[in-house]
From TrEMBL, chain A:
Family: Belongs to the YciI family.
Stretch forming the signal peptide: none
Protein name in UniProt: YciI family protein
Lineage of the species this protein comes from: Bacteria, Pseudomonadati, Verrucomicrobiota, Verrucomicrobiia, Verrucomicrobiales
Domain YCII-related: 20-115
Alphabetized InterPro entries for the sequence: Dimeric_a/b-barrel, YCII
Matching SUPFAM superfamilies: Dimeric alpha+beta barrel (SSF54909)
Transmembrane domains' residue ranges: none
From TrEMBL, chain B:
This protein's name: Sigma-70 family RNA polymerase sigma factor
Domain DUF6596 span(s) in chain numbering: 192-293
Domain RNA polymerase sigma-70 region: 19-86
InterPro entries: DUF6596, RNA_pol_sigma-70_dom, RNA_pol_sigma70_r2, RNA_pol_sigma_r2, RNA_pol_sigma_r3/r4-like
Pfam families referenced in this protein's UniProt entry, alphabetically: DUF6596 (PF20239), Sigma70_r2 (PF04542)
Length: 134, 437
């Protein structure tokens, strides 16, 4: 795991669109309340750059023929239900926030991805160039 | 391009149990439109509306009128379904029209009345005599109170599989028997109302006896039973003295729930309870319904139980308890009920009026004592009487028997302390007889 600081922030991807199927209205409200407080606190602390849920449906475009087909994009347990873009400096901070997600105990998974500071391909070419000069 | 998060410092706080209550309301409204044989569909649609909220509110905030939002979402989802599915072939237009006619905004009084009627129709449908009493209770929890299978299984100390089976069976009965979605009238109402009251009573008891599991769910059971009872009492069709009596007994018992355990979860006897923590509002409401229940000639078992609960609630302290009056209630109750549990409770009242010897004598006179042999409270009461009669060795043995028979940790702890107090020959004081270490 790298711990380089990243001024471009970190993306939390909430994976799983079927973790709440067996929950009662009471439990759903509970998770939602906790989530709301969590979201608000992050907002107050200035750690949220963006946040959105994603629709469950959409299209996938593939191949040379640019075939357009309806999802599903992945199995329900892997499908992304929404994301947060975090304005934090380190992976550690991003992980700490991800671990606070109130839906984790119910089976939601959170993927934490650093937003690359530049296009990774360009960065590699850059690094290779520097390497050659060294 | 994603929008920056809308940061709302004034997040509306959802009222407690909003989702559960709205879900129960919506299920009955939709069942009224789809028909009771499509109960499952109504439940699915409502569940989807809740999930939709869970997927979007955390990012966009809570809408100004959460209840209306849920209603609208459920309605749209239902319209989607019936337009897409063939199952509604002949009724499709009619159902769509009814859905469209549902108000979008908030609640109008007219709408409230309709909801109330729908919910009562649903209670009566769930409590149809063609469905066994056990299944009725489970079905009521699922459809009227929006509990999940897991929560019901916890409440009934049963497995999720067993509960799911019961629900399937009950819904199948509704289909097969073509149980109507209506409040019966005339003579049929009389008999059906008793079934409804009994289900509410069972629901309440399940919560009140706190058999184990999550206490939170337990208190919810009591709350839901009271809520449905209130709905029933407010409806002209069910506004009977015994409905008020049941409601009174539930309110008066619920008022004392907070005092039954101390902060560490230890069980407290009535004499050890802090009466300051009894809920005065609930007591006042209970007494009001008790007065409503005395219209007419009816005297149901609910009346007698409510009367007993009122004696406790109106006593300034334990010493002021009017045991003689309580005993009179038990005497009358015993005339109409052959339940050994009633007789057991009566024996406690006897002991408090005439002494432990007399209490023991009352225990020996119980008609079906063999049914009590495996009931932990019977042995706990015997132990209590023996202790009062200074027969501490026997008392310790009785408490041991009671400990073996109960599955509730808090009860075990309490009884074990009573046992230790007897063995060390000192008077029992709450929390003073813990094992060392």
């Amino acid at each position: 795991m790298n711990s380089y600081t990243n001024s471009n922030g970190y993306l939390l991807l909430f994976r799983g669109t079927d973790w709440h199927l067996q929950m009662s209205p009471e439990e759903i409200q509970q998770v939602m309340g906790d989530w709301g407080s969590w979201f608000d606190r992050l907002g107050k602390e200035g750690k949220l750059a963006a946040a959105n849920p994603l629709e469950n449906e959409g299209v996938v475009i593939s191949g040379k023929a640019r075939t357009v087909s309806d999802g599903p994009f992945a199995e329900a347990k892997e499908s992304v239900g929404g994301f947060f873009l975090l304005k934090v400096e380190t992976m550690e901070e991003a992980l700490a926030i991800a671990k606070e997600c109130p839906a984790l105990p119910y089976g939601l998974t959170v993927e934490v991805r650093p937003v690359a500071p530049a296009c990774p391909a360009a960065r590699m070419a850059d690094e290779a160039g520097q390497h050659a000069m060294a | 391009m994603s929008a920056p998060p809308v940061h709302n410092p004034e997040v509306p706080k959802l009222t407690e149990h909003l989702f559960r209550h709205e879900a129960a309301k919506l299920v009955s409204t939709l069942t009224g439109i789809f028909g009771i044989h499509r109960l499952q569909l109504a439940e699915d649609v409502v569940q989807e509306a809740m999930i939709r909220a869970l997927q979007t509110w955390p990012y966009y905030g809570v809408p100004a009128n959460p209840a209306a939002w849920l209603m609208q979402t459920a309605k749209n989802r239902a319209l989607d379904l019936i337009r897409r599915e063939k199952l509604f072939n002949e009724k499709q237009l009619e159902i769509a029209a009814s859905l469209e006619a549902l108000p979008d905004e908030g609640d109008t009084p007219r709408f409230d009345d309709e909801i109330r009627d729908d919910r009562l129709r649903l209670i009566f449908a769930c409590c149809h005599p063609a469905i066994s009493l056990e299944d009725q209770t489970v079905l009521a929890l699922k459809t009227l109170c929006a509990f999940s299978v897991t929560e019901i299984a916890t409440a009934f100390l049963s497995s999720e599989g067993a509960i799911a089976k019961r629900l399937t069976r009950a819904k199948q009965r509704i289909q097969d028997q073509r149980i109507p979605f209506e409040i019966p009238s005339g003579a049929e109402l009389e008999s059906r109302l008793d079934g409804v009251l009994q289900v509410l009573y069972l629901l309440f008891n399940e919560g009140y006896k706190a058999s184990s599991g999550e206490l939170i769910v337990k208190e919810d059971l009591c709350r839901e039973a009271i809520r449905l009872g209130g709905l029933l009492a407010a409806h002209p069709a069910a506004d009977h003295p015994r409905t008020h009596a049941l409601l009174a007994l539930m309110l008066l018992d619920a008022a004392r729930i907070p005092a039954r355990q101390d902060r560490d979860g230890n069980i407290l006897r009535l004499m050890d309870q802090d009466r300051e923590s009894w809920d005065r509002t609930l007591i006042a409401a209970g007494l009001w319904h008790l007065s409503q229940s005395s219209r007419g000639e009816e005297l149901s078992e609910y009346h007698l139980q409510a009367g007993i609960a009122a004696c406790h609630c109106t006593a300034a302290d334990y010493r002021a308890t009017d045991w003689a009056r309580i005993l009179k209630h038990y005497d009358r109750w015993q005339e109409v009920s052959d339940s050994p549990v009633v007789a057991l409770n009566r024996a406690v009242a006897v002991a408090n009026v005439h002494g432990a010897e007399a209490g023991m004598k009352a225990l020996r006179e119980i008609a079906k004592p063999e049914q009590l042999e495996t009931y932990y409270l019977f042995h706990a009461v015997v132990g209590d009487f023996e202790e009062r009669m200074e027969r501490r060795q026997e008392a310790a043995a009785s408490f041991s028997k009671a400990i073996e028979l109960t599955g509730v940790a808090a009860e075990k702890t309490f009884l074990d302390e009573r046992r230790r107090a007897c063995e060390s020959n000192v008077p029992y004081r709450p929390g003073k007889h813990r094992p060392k270490g």
